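#struct-queue
[09:14] JT: dropping the first one here, sequence first, then the structure tokens:
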Amino acid sequence: MPGNTFGTLFRITTWGESHGKGVGVVIDGCPPRMPLTEKMIQSMLDRRRPGKFPASTTRMEPDQAMILSGVFEGMTTGTPIMIMVKNKDAKSGAYSPYASLYRPGHGDFSYVAKYGIRDWRGGGRASARETVARVAAGAVAGAILENHGISVIAYTLELGGIRAETTDLALINQNMFMCPDRKAAEKMVLHVEKIKQQGDSLGGVVEIVASGVPSGLGNPVFDKLDAELAKAVMSIGAVKGVEIGAGFQAARMLGSQNNDPIVPDGFLSNNAGGVLAGISNGDKIVVRAAVKPIPSIAIEQKTINTERKPETICVKGRHDISAIPRINVVCEAMVSLVLADQLLQQKAIEKS
């Protein structure tokens, strides 16, 4: 099964299934002599841990990170780093009623079309549980970026059609939906409760901002920085759209409006989202991810069984109402992975 490895110089390979013994990641290319502890990784994993938010599944996973290799006395050794997180609260029996049914919105149908077999216990590799490994790797990438003065932050811009109108980053950790707008966050709480009672789910938009990114990262043509960022964020299961900078709004602008004027101190606007011609321009990198509603809902839907006969399905169990805000840190991790990889590539060029 290809497609489990991401990156060029800073490469990660994730492994494991939602209801297997655990999930994890192997990281290759991390520079040596860099401080790294399980506590550093844990702080990021705790931000996506289930059971903490009103829109979250009640699956209670401690998500304890274990570094199995690549670190000695709290320092990276330059060899592959393996991080494992055990699955503690998987209840596979809850999925047995759906073993012969294709759940609408899930990868059940397409996985069978490709492989002729699927792990019906929670979705296997298609489950959001796989993102634990991405977040663990993102913590390592974040440590590299921090050493170079680069920071990445993700927050909820929109949930269920309720959009933040102001951006106060100090508010992100002060509300349960990690929204930078207090009034919008309060509306989100009420809306989620309403949708939860209806047995339905919600989508939204996550905005990711990287600050301190130097100019010169990325490559022209096929390996553009914005192309790599789009691929990274789009590879997250629930993401169905990605914008860089002004994004689709740029299609509604005039050239005189979309261009970012340049002065000696930098750019007067940032419609480019920090990327010009596929290369960072030194401004903030701005990425937005459109997150679809969780497909497991308690409302009856039409489907077919594995014999392609018509059925109806009502998915019950421990499911999120929305991937937001747990997906926020996953988006942050993927952007961090791209920037760490691009930073190492640029340093290799500068040394040659």
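[09:21] JT: and here's the second one, same format:
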Amino acid sequence: MPNFFGKKEEPVEEIITQNKNMLIIIERLKSVIETLQPILITGETGVGKELFARYIHRLSDVKGNLVALNVAGLDDNMFSDTLFGHSRGAFTGADIIRKGMIEQAGSGTLFLDEIGDLSIPSQVKLLRLLEQNEYLPLGMDESKKSTARIITATNQDLWKLQREGKFRKDLNFRLRTHHIHIPPLRDRKDDLPRLANCFLAEAARALKKKVPATPPELFTLLNTYSFPGNIRELRAMIFDALSQHNSNILSLDVFKSHIERERDKTGGVTELIIDAGIGSLPFSYFRELPTIRRATQMLVAEAMYRAKNNQSIAAKILGISQPALSKRLKNEKAEQEMEDGSE
């Protein structure tokens, strides 16, 4: 894994990647870290948005703490109290002064996750913090100053929320002074071996087991899957597999079961819908539709290609048994030989 260094030549190893698009993102981050302007991190659930926030904080030349808050489900009063704090007697039960998270961060970093769920009244208060570096704790008459950098993250489309009147236009622009979008795992599958080996080592430490050998078929299998849960899903799969591991070589059973279960939920079209859009199905581009027999042959051929001719994995992709696939391949071969002999 490449090492990325901060000001003190300390290696930052949390982000494991060799994917060229990820490396471009990391390089771009290095150029904006010094500005201390707000950074918006977007990406699907499970891609590692908080990990990037921690990476930014660690490389930034800041003296304070990293304080993280998930704002989903917080009403305006709860948001204000948690973020800004309150004075004694601010409301019933406020018997002591409470320092808010912005004060706890000091000159460090405040990370607000799920920012797309923030209520409109709370958005107004956050905008004031961003524009004036000021906030007002509950029950106080004088504002306090903040020197913390603000990093926000969401898996939602803020432009869409803005059009629907659910997110303020001025706040949207202010948050994305710098914006990075983290690609889903299905778009960086070249990172699968490194990520899997990292999680295997982590799981082995947590479970007090030796790191097992991985069969070469593991990455062939993982490359056939779209990972709707992204890196978080991969990590959970590996922890589950290692918890059930009892031989020298890691079994594929947990991975196969998980992938088959998830495909059953979606009918196997998750990646197609995400990448192509509903209504843009493969056969839409055919001038003439293939016959059922020909379409089946094409589907089997593609599954075998993705599975690198591993029939067991190809059968899982197709949702049939390995013996059924083997029989189908033998029949196709026999039919082809007969056609060739009759010419």
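[09:30] RK: nice, looked through the second one.
[09:31] RK: Confidence is low (pLDDT under 50) at residues 1-13, 270-279.
[09:31] JT: good to know. The chain is about 50% helix and 10% strand.
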